[in-house]
Structure of dTDP-4-dehydrorhamnose reductase:
Amino acid sequence: MVVLVSGARGQLGQALQFISGNYPEVNFVFCDSSQLDITNFEQCEAVFNTYKPNFCINAAAYTAVDKAESEPDKAFDINTNGAQNLAEVCKAHQTVLIHVSTDFVFDAYYANGIAYYDREKRLPLKSTFGLLETDVPFPSGVYGLTKLQGEQAIQSTWNKHFIVRTSWVYSEFANNFMKTMLRLAADRDSLSVVADQIGTPTYAIELAKVLMTIVMAQSTDMNNDTKYGIYNFSNEGQCSWYEFAAAIFELSNIKIDLQPIPSSAYPTPAKRPAYSVLDKTKIKDNFGVEVQDWKQSLANCLAKL
Ligand SMILES: NC(=O)C1=CN([C@@H]2O[C@H](COP(=O)(O)OP(=O)(O)OC[C@H]3O[C@@H](n4cnc5c(N)ncnc54)[C@H](OP(=O)(O)O)[C@@H]3O)[C@@H](O)[C@H]2O)C=CC1
Ligand SMILES: Cc1cn([C@H]2C[C@H](O)[C@@H](COP(=O)(O)OP(=O)(O)O[C@H]3O[C@@H](C)C(=O)[C@@H](O)[C@H]3O)O2)c(=O)[nH]c1=O
């Protein structure tokens, strides 16, 4: 069985490379952006013609949330056109596409036990706790919008897909919030971090394992069309970015003056969701996935540094 991974040099791509030895029956083909530029349809076709993958995991994306506000065309080209290209070549080759998306397709707001999408209009979501795959997406920035459009491009092109929405991904690989906090703490005595954006950190290694759980389950029954669709996956529990930072410092024994601040005190080009906790019932029920508490996973990751 051949599993092609695009975006192999990124955080998730490196996590997939790290766990690939656990799957001796799988022939992995890891392509970085120079070997497979997902915005280049001809290159996608050529790579698929060479390797004839049974599964394609798309770990390639434009992930610079703030920069996307001033580079919307580039973000759209990678996150939407790139997803569309992969869906088309997957369809031509009958390859199952595993695509990764984001909690930032939502801009939810949680108040008094009710989650709303569109925090200004206060339109209620179906969820009572955690955003469901069936909740109405409502991105607040270019990154989230282009990721949502990428999901939609896949849905309208090729039915044999799994779209896995995840959140706040960190790891020992590439760039992420955990590494930013550790870097800043090395230079500063104090830090201020927003405390009014609530979500769930996700360890990239665990995300990579879950993607492979889906691959392995589907590979045993390739004619089963019942499980395709959107799934949520993050670690268990919830926190603010401030609480995430506090846990990073506590578990690393770093003493720093860490201050909770409102988002208004940390202006950024892109607006981020106030609430983006993902409900994971569907992935647990369909694939028997067991989800670890975010703080335990963070401790496991920090222990590797
Ligand atoms: N990071 C996070 O917190 C979260 C990420 N996600 C999603 O998870 C997935 C993986 O993210 P993550 O690994 O963290 O992201 P990274 O930014 O670490 O990696 C993305 C990779 O995509 C590659 N890439 C960019 N453009 C292209 C292109 N045109 N063709 C091929 N490859 C390209 C980059 O290559 P190069 O290095 O050469 O530029 C980079 O290696 C993405 O879909 C992202 O949207 C979802 C929720 C949270
Ligand atoms: C560095 C820093 C950030 N912040 C805030 C800004 C922001 O609201 C929040 C997170 O910061 P970052 O910009 O590092 O994280 P950000 O790039 O917004 O992370 C997002 O990335 C994309 C790819 C996703 O899909 C999301 O799930 C999410 O992980 O913390 C502070 O308050 N203080 C700080 O010193």
